[in-house]
């Protein structure tokens, strides 16, 4: 799966065949991938589910800690959204491909709905939404949806860009942990500003 993830992240889904995955993984039998995963989409779904599970273990702890709070700030809300991804990247080491893989998957029409359902609709994110740090009253549904799209695009592509820069030596891999943590804090600040500017103060 790691080989498939790398190839898809670096080349896109349309430019990677099962044969190429098998060859890059050192498999002489091209049917090995199909045997284990039935289809290309099933392989991609499995990779996405693995990422979701790894991030969820961090996020659910953070969100549960806020559950009994009377009020939750925007900064705390976005910390729960962003920092679990930061920790997952730090734990995985350098290079990683998961952020670029997710960005590719969100841009693939046949996979987009699955990504939104599986990767972005988890127990921790549903609970975070219920806690209610984001203003809802008086906000038009289409504006709320647009806000969600902006948040998603900013997060996904900011992570993918840093991942690309670390993997290709544009940023020293020795500074990877610091770079991820700085990005996390910058994103939290940016998302707080975006939310206040678009939806108004809570």
TrEMBL record:
It comes from the Bacteria. GO terms for molecular function: DNA binding. Keywords: DNA-binding. Residues 2-45 form the HTH tetR-type domain. The keyword DNA-binding applies. Coiled coil: none annotated. This is TetR family transcriptional regulator. The gene is npm2.
